[in-house]
Amino acid sequence: MTIHSMTGYALQTREVGRGVLHLELRSVNSRYLDISLRVGDELRMAEPLLREVIAARLNRGKIECRLNLLPSAAGPRELTLNQTLLRQLRDMQDAVRLELPEAASLDVAEVLRWPGMLGDDAMPAEKLQAECAALAGAALDDFVATRAREGTKMAAAILQRVERMRTLVAETAPRLPQVLADYQERLAFKLREALAVADEERIRQEIGVFAARIDVSEEVSRLSAHLDEVARVIEKGGAVGKRLDFLMQELNREANTLASKSVATEITGIALELKLLIEQMREQIQNIE
Prior knowledge:
63% of the residues lie in helices and 14% in strands. It is α+β, with helices and mostly antiparallel strands. Helix 4 (125-195) packs antiparallel against helix 8 (265-285). The longest helix is centred in the middle third of the chain and has 71 residues, at 125-195. The radius of gyration is 36 Å and the shape is rod-shaped.
């Protein structure tokens, strides 16, 4: 299963009678699923359906959906008179004038403005809603595919940095015994100078205390475990953005501790590069669904 970016775009059109349905989807990253609909007045009945089909396909992101019915290039709609209503008006006028001969007759403008008098070849609402559903499905297919392609590229970029971090961690572990030994030797020399007496037992105690404080073997082990988990989560795929974001926090915590405990320039350099790589991954992960 692949991972998906929260950034995407899709545009689909569909001819319906003498009009053209125009649906546009775009999204940016968001902590939750936030759907914003901008729908033409004649298509308001499709809003609940659109919200439902979008929520069924997407998990996170700020989604903007625009749906409009635009005039077709085929030409203007042909207006027709409602013959049944016209006959009813004629019969009603005759009945009124029979009782009130002085009543004025309806003029053409009044008849044409009468509600329901002018019909056209517009598509029935039920069929138009079905067309909107079909168009939304096609747009979402394209939209999800776009987010999947970008998500695949992001996953590759993250895994590349994971491999670099694994290399750095692997380089750190063998250096730790020598780094610790060198530090103990320097510390013993400074303590002898400071104490002015060769109290070896006290020196060993002080060295033991400081050695425990600067031991980073646990941090190195946890870094390796977290990197394995990042790779596993990406391989599993799906909606993994929040899980990966949590793992970045854990990696950053271990890298910070490694840097703060470091007593050797080479370990400090490794810790700083780890922090840089973690930040680069975090920027990618902020946009993963």
